[in-house]
Amino acid sequence: MKKYYVISLIVTFVTAVVCLGVSGVAIYGWSKDDQKKAGKFFVEKTAVVKSIACIGDRKEVSRSAGLKPYTLSAAEISEVDLRVNLGKVVIVGTEAGEIKLVPTELEADCEMVVSQKKDSLKVEILKTDSKSSGCQGGVVAEIPLKTKIEVENAKGDVSISKMIGEVKVRMGAGMATVLDSMKEVDIKIGAGDIELRGQSSEVKVQVGAGRIMAKLTQKISDGEWSLENGAGDIEVEIPVEQTAEESLKVGMGKVTGTNLGKEDSNFKIKARSGIGNIEVVKK
After folding, report:
1. Are residues 88 and 160 in the same domain?
2. d(Cα 106, Cα 68) in Å, to the nearest integer?
3. Beta strand pairing status for 98-104 and 70-73?
4. 124/222 same-domain check
5. Do residues 155 and 97 touch, judged by C-beta distance below 8 A?
6. For each of the chain's 283 residues, which pLDDT tens digit applies?
7. Are 254 and 274 in contact (CB under 8 A)?
8. Structural domain boundaries, residue 15
9. Do 160 and 230 sit in the same domain of this protein?
10. Which one, of 66, 44, 53, lies nearest residue 112 by Cα?
11. Residue 162's Cα: distance from chain center in Å?
12. How buried is residue 196: exposed, middle or buried, by Cβ count under 10 Å (0-12/13-18/19+)?
């Protein structure tokens, strides 16, 4: 009986961490820092427990196996999470007070599923019968421009434009294009190209192999752009009047900068490439 009692305690603890959050769990004798670390670990590793145990955690609002558009009010939505396994994602910012979602190129037995948790909307392309991922299909979305955007795509292109909220993209392979950005941009791709244009002060870009093209479209007072490429070129363009503290390093390749660390500025450009060229120009 002791064994089952211990197991039940562990399950209860994990469920509490996942459903209630780190702040809802106290571990006697542990420091607050250790509790936070433990909570973070369980939150990251227990997605299955969360989907099973957290009753009422997320509410499904739409399910469609066809290509019919779905529109809903954006009044209570501040974040949209789009998850596609194999397909193209296109997101365009709008000043309208609604969200319009259109599934594209859906594979047979696949559907677009929309669910909501508080102010967060989740859009997924899933198997009709098993609710699992692995389907081919994309999404074209019109979303209020200040909304926070997060996209996951195993393989396929992602295009985001006219969105001035935070943007986060995770991709296995494909091209990511983010235009007109104003807040933090965070992009990670296994293999593919990245094109970024905007006024974001905080940029984090990582690609295993491909090309990074980043353009600052307007002078900013401070911030940091961190650009990393395992194999491929990095090209950065900034306005003529923009000052920048540059730190550019390559394992094998050529480095061309505007000042190469000799200019004192609150805006920093940190670029790293294993194999490839790095170029920073003013235009």
Report:
1. yes
2. 11
3. antiparallel
4. no
5. no
6. 444 444 444 444 444 444 434 333 333 344 555 544 544 444 444 444 444 444 457 788 888 777 889 999 999 999 999 999 999 999 999 999 999 999 999 998 899 999 999 999 999 999 887 656 678 999 999 999 999 999 999 999 999 999 999 999 999 999 999 999 999 999 999 999 999 999 999 999 999 999 999 999 999 999 999 999 999 999 999 999 999 999 999 999 999 998 766 678 899 999 999 999 999 999 9
7. no
8. 2-53
9. no
10. 66
11. 16
12. buried
Closest CA to 262 of 250, 276, 280: 280
Tell whether 81 and 136 lie within a shared domain: yes
Residues 46 and 116 in one domain: no
Backbone torsion region of residue 98, taken as left when φ is above 0, otherwise alpha when ψ lies between -120 and 50, otherwise beta: beta
Which burial class, exposed, middle or buried, applies to 218 when counting CB atoms under 10 A from its CB (0-12, 13-18, 19+)?
A: exposed
| Residue 256 CB contacts under 8 Å (≥ 6 apart), including other chains | 277, 278, 279, 280, 281
What angle (nearest 5°) sits at the alpha carbon of residue 237, between those of residues 280 and 231? 60
Query: Rounded distance, CA 125 to CA 90, Å?
Result: 14
DSSP assignment of 241-262: T---EEEEEEEES-EE-SSTT-
Same-domain status, 47 and 70: no
Q: Helix crossing, 2-20 with 32-45: angle to 10°?
A: 90
> How many CB atoms are closer than 10 A to CB 70?
17
The rounded distance, in Å, linking the Cα atoms of 204 and 202 is 7
Round to whole Å and give the CA distance between 80 and 99.
10
